[in-house]
Amino acid sequence: MSNAMQQLRQAVQDDNKRLFQSIAFNNDVIDSDENLMILYVAAICMNDLSVFNHILTRNNFFRIRPEWALLFKRADIFKLIQKSPGSTPERLKLDKLVLKASLDKEVSFITDLVLARAVVTPETISLLFQESQHRLIINLVIKTIPSLYKPPSYSKKHFHKGASLTDERELHFYDVIESALHTGVKSAVIIEVLKLMQLELEKAGGVPAGVNNYIAHLDRSNMTDAEYISRELDYNELFSLFVSKRKIRLLRHLYNLPAEQFK
Q: Which long-range contacts (CB under 8 A, 24 or more apart) does 48-56 make?
């Protein structure tokens, strides 16, 4: 991680706007990915329009990156991306671009900032699979405050009665696997993620004794880690999903699991 990114991390941790501005106005920062991450912090963390505009001007509105330039051409872009995550296409786009930049540059604190604030979409999950960020995928599901998810039109799973299939809601492990299947993630990679999730369950103490359908209606805050992960890792639901997609290798993996893992 570059010196500028180390200083940026310190500025964010300390909420130090003076340090942040000294980094942002330093013309030695010429990398476009790093400039994009500084711009993100200006808008989302520091509410600093002057830095935001300076970064855009210094980088000629990122015209050398057409996908980025298309996002920043609007005069009201600062206000649009400050709206609630998921409420505007511009914010969703920015989150995706910054997440990709932070993964490419291995700036993990920016990755964490984005994922903590973003609404997860199938594109987010697809990007994390492309970058082999399987641990991050698991963490999105099992963290204490579940990530928000914007389901795609192909989603077939109802999690809340009365809600539309595409209403924004909590992210579930089922969503991760459904998205992976839809975007063509290899079965071997999906199996690796299933094993990671099973490992998390075992670390939490395994399937709780007497666990049953009552946990299906509990909030995350009212459940132990073991109860929550056990609910998320529902092999019966995954079996039905794999059958519908005719995923023989994934079904074979489930067939080889101990019977007690099927609740």
A: 48/17, 48/20, 48/21, 48/24, 49/78, 50/21, 51/20, 51/21, 51/24, 51/25, 52/78, 53/78, 54/24, 54/25, 55/24
